[in-house]
Amino acid sequence: MTKVRPAAAASASLWERAEEVAAIERVVDTLCADRSSSGRVHLLRGDAGLGKTALLAETRRIAEARGCTVWSARGGETLRSVPFNVVRQLLQPALLSLHPEEAREYLGDWYDIAGPALGIADPGEAPADPQGVCDGLVAAVTRLARRDWPLVLLVDDAHWADQETLRWLAAFVERLDELSVLVVVARRPTEVKGDSARHLDTVAAAAGQSVTSLSLLTPEAVAGLTRATLGEHADDPFCREVWAVTGGNPYDTVELLAKVQDRALTPGEPSATELRPLNRSARGGGLVTRLEQLGVDATRFAMAAAILGAEITVDQAARLAGMRQEVAVRCAELLCSARILTAPDAVAVPADDGDLEFVHPLIATAVYDSIPDGLRRAMHGIAAQVVIDAGKGLAAASRHLLQVHADDDEELVEQLREAAREHLAVGAPDAARRCLERALREPPAPDAHPHVLYELGCATLLTSPARTIEHLRTALSMPGLDNAKRVDAVYRLSQALTHNDQLEEAVRTVEAEAARQTTGPARMRLQAVQFMWEGIYAGETTSPGRSEKLTALAATCTGRDNAERALLILRGFDAMTHGENAEVVVEVCDRALVNGRLAPGLGWTDPEWGLELLMMLASSYAYTDRLDRAEALFNEALRAYTTAGWSGGHLAVAHAYLGLGLRRRGRLREAEETLRESLRIAERVGRGLPLYWSAICNLVDTLLARGHTQEAWDIAEQYGFAPPYPSTIVLPDPRSVRGRLLLAVGRTQDGINELEEAEKAAAVRGHLNPVMVPWAADLARALATEDPARAARLASDARRQAERFGTDTAIGEALRCAAALETGQRAVRLAAQAVAYLEASPCQYEHAAARVEYGILSRSASELHRGLTLARSCDADGLADQAQTALDALGAPAVGLVPGQKRR
């Protein structure tokens, strides 16, 4: 640390901060030098009072002197429960400079998604997806930042920022490679736990080595600051005592010297004994004593300001303190003179929309903590009404409502429930959860109690399945829910149990409730949900005779309502997985549609049924060679989730299944790109979930089809594509895909073992569809040399099952396997038959593979040419190499590459 005075114009709080200021100058100069350069994060870290805010103010001065646009915001200790508080502050300058139509133009499709969180658009009726809102905020800042380059973002007291802002900030800093923005974040090194700590760790990781850790001032620096403030005649004993009582804390030092000036003390050794009592009055109990000396009115006004926390206006503080306007004005002036309150400093980090702010967060904390508990809770109740009367809504008032003393207040319960709905509508489920948990402590009236629990369970479904289970079980154990809401609560409880890997209990829960219901739509819905959870279970079926019961029940369905349509979809999926005739599968699935489309109330974003059912429908079409219908559904899902701003797990699944459809179509490069996007989103949602397995499994399968074996292996190793597998089924079968991967990298015995495990698992579930669970063909090829008899039996069984299923793809693939086990003309004839079937199939990669294999067996250059052309059109690089090698061996002319394609 450099022990020199700052420039005369610099703040006293910047004393001995020359190196820190120089580091800031360097990062600002780097930003301004090149518009195409990557953005970066600079982190200021230090305990309270070490000068983080002063350095941010200096950052603003430096940046503005170089022509930068600067946006700034500050977290607040009492404001952490206000969602999007800090990011709203940050964007205020940009948003206020835009007319509403300009804002809509800049934000584009993200306007309706991020706009409600920013307070510039009305929320929709349905809860917003938190991840979608986060992505919308990232897009909003990204677009505005490109307009305002060079842009510097300042975030002070990030340890007190709301969780929604920190989630956005963590996502935004990960995008800085493609955006030239400087983000400067100031925080204390402690005081953060849970998700907020994780988000701040992401910010710190983005900063890398660009971190300034602030230290206490040295005795020499304190002596220099003392003499600069009080005069060169301050003697050494006095200066040493200033350092001793403040510990070198810059804030305490500046405050102490100001008090010395107020008292007109001579800065000499005789006065040194008075420094310690003066320093105690700067914070904590000493500050409270000093505040009380200003009078009762000033104390009440300061308490009101501490309760408000932000946007402190004289008018609102007067209402909260219960005093006349003219008295409040005098109190504000008195508190400003005493350096407790001050006007917002536009050069530092501006307040939102108020007349006043506390001089330092330490003062705000001390005043807030000094308010007796009962009085503080009562003042929060009044503050809530002040906020409501100002037209800011119950969501804005909820931070005060959370602090009110519990008192069987039915009106408060209803206010908290409405605030929770408002929070959900803008994508802040954690804020909604806090409101509903507080409503339970009131407590609610008996008739409202189960409804609050139900709403709480819905709010925590995606973020905390275990907590959701507890809330919904309790709600269902109470009287008060009407039958429709009770059925919905049971469905949501089963969803939570499934997400919590308690699938069998989910089935039993729905089954028990269905037994309580009389014949009708509600019972049929629950029966459909039970069959749905059993249908995605990867283990042994939990209900004996499940398929037979489902077949009988579906036979009575005409598709007159969504419960019947759901049962038809489930019947079609069950038939597909069991390898029944594909025409039967398609006929049943078609009956679940209305004029070839999804019925109203059964769409991708409709909450009554969830996405699992529609993924079953689309998968049934995908594996019965109706890829046009499957792709239409997958694309519809992607459009629906993107339009609705659902960019969490739903979007990951949509990309994964769209990738599956592209893979089956033979559009391998597009499939890989889509699946990589699915994996990126799934990583953000969390590893281990079924959607994560769908992304990994399909990506590995696609890379193997492309011939990128090493890359497939690296992906599998990096992302844990290995046992144990999830309890829900994944398409295609992960054991089959991993077995093929092991064979491809030369681990033959491990591959055989994995494929045999796939065989056992398929037998347990009755999954006989040879295309969905394609272990048999790979296992037969692997055993062809060491156990040819068993290999032949496997190939024969696969062919029989394929003919039972009846699709061109299934039969063609079975014939390819049979040809690989034969020799001579029999092998050639089987390969030719495989080509004939697969030529009629929509699966172009399999068609290409059959052409190449037939060309090799028949030594036909024309067939190899056709196979090579098909392989290249599929971007199946490994297959294209195989075909070209065979052509070279035949001495055939080389086939030209498509434009832009390299010979591998």
Topology diagram in text:
Elements (H helix, E strand, L loop, with lengths): L17 H16 L6 E6 L6 H14 L3 E6 L10 H12 L3 H8 L3 H8 L11 H18 L3 E6 L6 H11 L7 E7 L6 H14 L3 E3 L5 H12 L5 H11 L3 H14 L11 H6 L3 H9 L3 H13 L5 H8 L3 H13 L3 E2 L14 E2 L2 H10 L2 H17 L3 H9 L8 H16 L3 H13 L7 H11 L5 H12 L6 H17 L3 H14 L4 H15 L10 H10 L6 H16 L4 H10 L19 H12 L4 H18 L4 H17 L2 H18 L4 H17 L2 H11 L14 H11 L3 H18 L9 H9 L4 H18 L2 H14 L2 H16 L4 H15 L2 H13 L3 H14 L14
Parallel strand pairs: 1-4, 1-5, 2-3, 3-4
Antiparallel strand pairs: 6-7
Strands side by side in the biggest sheet? 2-3-4-1-5
Structural class, judged by helices and strands?
mainly alpha
Share of residues in helices: 55-70%
Low-pLDDT stretches are 1-10, 347-352, 897-904
The N- to C-terminal Cα distance equals 57 Å
Strand content: under 5%
Main sheet properties: 5 strands, parallel
The number of helices is 44
Shape: elongated
